[in-house]
Amino acid sequence: MVYSDVSVSGAGQRRRIRGFESEAGSVPEAKRPVSGAFQVQPDQSEADTSGDGQINGMDSSIRRKKHFGQHFLTNPETAERIVSFLEWKGAVVEIGPGDGILTDFLLSRGLDVRVVERDHELIPGLKRRFGSNLKIISADALDVMGNIPEAWGQTAVISNLPYNIASPLTFHFCRNVNQIPEMVLMYQREVAEKVTTDLGPLNLAVGPFFETNLVMTLKPASFSPPPKVDSAVVHFVRRKNFEVKPEKDYFRFCRRIFENRRKMLYKNIMKNQSGGMSEIFKKLEISRSARVDQLSVRQLLALYREVRENGIQI
Fold first, then answer.
1. Which of 212, 238, 264 corresponds to the end of one domain?
2. What is the pTM of this model?
3. pLDDT tens for each residue of 209-219
4. Range of the domain at 279
5. Burial (CB count <10 Å: 0-12, 13-18, 19+), residue 157
6. Angle ∠(37,39,40) on CA atoms, nearest 5
7. How far, in Å, CA of 159 to CA of 145, rounded?
8. Fewer CB within 10 A of the terminal residue: the chain, N end or C end?
9. CATH number of the domain where residue 61 is located
């Protein structure tokens, strides 16, 4: 794994990327969606509407809840394309299955699927639609994924993430990386770029543990209700070797150093310190006047290792 500062093409323009490269030494080549898959208009014409007020066994009268960040995919072709990015053949956990549009394609591949759904009004519909084929956990994903049960073993993750908890969930996934070999996650496009390319708390938290690839973008019309921004799907593959441990102190470091990012990093992290940082900055040849955005990923990882080895809490 090496630090990358290269220029790539994307979304019709060229942009600078600062982040992590693959262990082979190059930015992973994006899997491109099939032609026309970037924006698919909603189409319910083939939905099973048997039963009063139901679509595919789900109660169509249930309102989407803004406080849960619910924006459900409406096009089966789009859902199938998203599921196709998942290469893992073992157990899978889906966060926020909603009406089960992704779940359906996961089960059709013969995967061992469990879902975590906080909205109790959606549980009966999921049970009607999938029966005993689906393991359903009625709980808050932040509670469940904060400490994945060991009994789950190696488990891939897939989700049209609730946008209001996407960032904290991503930190949880990274902490549990030893149990997560692969993920396919949908974010607001701006957040997806923070995960994959833009140096910041999310990129620094994810990079040492997963290779990431933004593989698909979707317009608001792909969802019900439509969000106000574009969305994007990111494919995560666990790295074979980690340069740091996936521990709480590291993820606290990722958040802490980007607070007040326009200020000098040294002064920012010295607020709660009595000493020791001056020697570390000198050893790593980091200027005490430097801002965090002026440092490379490699320098930041080296800084964390020194801080940890010296028992300094940030």
1. 238
2. 0.80
3. 999 999 999 99
4. 248-309
5. buried
6. 80
7. 13
8. C
9. 3.40.50.150
